[in-house]
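Response to reviewer comment R2.3. The reviewers asked that we include at least one raw input/output pair. We reproduce the pair for Glycosyl transferase wecb/taga/cpsf here without editing.
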Amino acid sequence: MHPTDTVLILGIPLDNLTMEETVDRIHGMVAAYRGDGKPRLVATVNVDFLVNTLSWFSDAPRHPELLGILQHADLVTADGMPLVWASRLLGNPLKERVTGADLVPKLALASPGKKLSLYFLGGRGEVARQAAECLKKKNPGMIIAGVDSPFVHIEGEKLAEADEDDTEVIERINEAEPDILLVAFGNPKQEAWFHRNRHRLKAAVTIGIGGTFEFITGSVSRAPVWMQNAGLEWVYRFIQDPKRLWKRYIIGLLKFSVMVLPIIIQDRWKRLRMGGPKSDASEPPAPQGDTPLKNELNVVPLPNELDASVVAELKQQQEEWLAHGNGLVLDFRNVRFIDSSGLGFLLGLWKKGSARYAGFHMAGVQPPVMKTLKLNRVASLLSEHMVDDLEEIVNSQQSPALHRPFYHTLTSSKKARELQLYGALDAAQMQGFDTKRLLKAVASRHLIMDLTHLNFVDSTGLVLLLKIKKTVASSGHTCLTCGANTHVTQMLRVTRLDHFFPSLQDIRKARAVLDETILS
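Raw output as returned:
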């Protein structure tokens, strides 16, 4: 068995680390922040987190923003034994579970020697302060950068005020400049809050820890160690509060089983069919010829089995691939099988390529591989990077950069304005966006917001849409929305804004409805 850095389960990349390795990785992130000033996110994922993110059967996520945050997170740990069990059944076992309840005390223990400061954010009432005091008592040299328990919004019409509400919280955090920010808002609130404030946060590493403060203070007791080691902690917690937790655990575990079982069956079946010694075609590939020059495509032929043994070799070359040329092309023509470590490797390449604005293509993906990608819920993520053959890339005459910026157009008539939105409206695109100018431009007439070409929106982008609609309404005019795709519609639904933004079919229908409104 070849241990891999990343194991993919249902489209979520899980870092394959022990508790000690996780602590070391976080310390490394703090050191990296001192060099590049980039805030980093650590997510601790359990079954409840996962089922809140994904839908039962489709690869269309239940919470598109949360899925995107997890796929881009700097570190994702498995905070639950069902994820570890699933990884074992998929043939690429995670080393161990790494829970927030265990991770925070470990970080507190190491903080005096590393001279790292911790900021406690969230939790109910005074539990954050109590948790800080409890850890300080056990670790006298621990540096407490601050404690705060604000209420934050990630859904409903109050989302329009989120930016202003967050500002005071961010200012207090930035004044303290903590090395580690512990956020206990629960999922998905803590991850969404970090995502929309990442660009203005001066904290090296932010960790979403859910109800960890309650465990630290003892207000919620943990299971005996033997039950934790046996993966039965959820049974202990369920017995403590069955009325509140039955839906979370029973339905959550059922949904997780329904989602992951087909993947396990397919993986086992393909391993049986492809059993026996590997052919030469399965040997780890190497780029042909010399190292590519700047602005040349780097084509990497892949073997027929992209599994843990191959990934271990491929990872040694990935930095060189991404450092040279216009982009990276993975030649999939011979690939017939991918396991969870191979999928994790692909997602890692996608993430690194996106971060560096480097091109990333998958050429010649065959039907068996596409079926695996769909079953593992990454087909929609990777589909825009797929091409039929190498000529399609060479002849495109376009940069393969993946970053598609958000932009808008505003057209006017005597009666109304039409605002067309394009690309991805997310926290990254909202940095430096002149919101006041746009609000001033749309304030004095009826407005149609055309979302036909809006591919994605997160909660930060929804803040802009809310402000636009409220600005138009406050001036006594009508604001209609049309053309929202399934991802945008789902984001409106999970943030409880679907009633506020009923979407008409298309721009023609919106114009007709607006004409009727004006005449009436």
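The two ends are 72 Å apart (CA to CA). Residues 279-284, 286-295, 397-403 have pLDDT under 50 and may be disordered. Further pairs are available on request from the corresponding author.
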